[in-house]
Write a structure and sequence with these properties.
Layout lengths: L3 H28 L5 H7 L2 H13 L5 H4 L7 H26 L9 H37 L4 H26 L4 H25 L3 H7 L17 H27 L4 H4 L6
Helix pairs in contact: 1-3, 1-6, 1-7, 3-6, 5-9, 5-10, 6-7, 6-9, 7-8, 8-9, 8-10
Length: about 270
């Protein structure tokens, strides 16, 4: 069980993150201006800022590394985390796209897909600079505070909170026409489905880094399709729902394989599922 002060710090961090995210989106929502990419990337550090303020104000800086799950961070660990992230995410993204073929979806040409491989490999490293800002709160501080609930309940609860935190941004996208209502529903619910896998990766390695890197993979199952925006609702929802299922299955596999041999940095405080 977390201490009362750790629970209080987690609540302060989450509330602060919601307030900051809403404040970031309101100007664009009111003016019907699209949210610039730079603002979106900066917004990913809203959770880290909220968590940092909460931990320093309530607990003190001595708790930061532990709650953010930053250790170990050796080059060997980072490389292992990178490999694990790609090994898990690529099949979880490709399988739903292949499932779409059964309902009439078409994949992008092979040449286009092959050309995207370097972008995925290198882009994951680059995007990790921004996804770190989210993961230290959602899979770091908050997941740690809720671990006494067991893996599935805690990871799904974090997923719902993480999903709701995205709502101001997604509603802004809807308001300015950057996303359709269908896309908003799919992308919002997909966040909650993704959370258990990211949590399982953290528990598997005992550190935040595999979740940071998996979150940074610059690809979705729909992006593998030739033109997902015009292939109709059946292919769109088939691939979307299949993506949710694939992510949850991947979480089950990673968690079941890792729970029997959790790294020592985690096992000291681990609870049963």
């Amino acid at each position: 069980m977390p201490s009362s002060s750790e629970s209080r710090a987690a609540v302060v961090a989450v509330v602060t993150a919601f307030v900051l995210m809403t404040a970031l989106c309101v100007p664009f929502l009111l003016t019907d201006h699209d949210v610039p990419t730079a603002v979106v990337l900066a917004g990913r550090y809203v959770p880290a800022l909220a968590s940092l303020v909460a931990i320093l104000a309530v607990l003190g800086r001595g708790h930061l590394v532990r709650l953010w799950r930053l250790r170990p961070a050796s080059p060997r660990e980072l490389f292992a985390s990178y490999g694990l992230a790609l090994a898990v995410m690529v099949p979880a993204l490709v399988a739903p796209a292949l499932a779409g073929l059964a309902v009439g979806a078409e994949l992008k040409p092979a040449g286009v897909l092959l050309a995207a491989v370097p972008m995925i490999v290198l882009g994951t490293v680059l995007f990790a600079l921004s996804t770190f800002g989210e993961e230290v709160l959602w899979r770091g501080q908050l997941q740690t505070a809720l671990r006494h609930l067991g893996f599935w309940r805690s990871s799904l609860l974090v997923g719902v909170i993480w999903m709701v935190w995205h709502l101001p941004l997604h509603l802004t996208y809807l308001s300015v026409g950057a996303l359709t209502g269908e896309q908003v529903v799919a992308s919002t619910l997909g966040i909650a489905a993704w959370a258990p896998l990211l949590a399982a990766l953290v528990e598997r390695r005992g550190t935040i880094w595999p979740a940071v890197l998996a979150h940074a993979v610059p690809l979705s199952s729909l992006q593998l399709l030739a033109d997902p925006s015009v292939q109709g609702p059946v292919p769109f929802w088939t691939v979307t729902v299949a993506s949710w299922v694939a992510l949850l299955v991947a979480a089950l596999v990673v968690w079941d394989r890792g729970s029997a041999a959790v790294p020592s940095t985690v096992s000291q405080t681990a609870t049963s599922r």
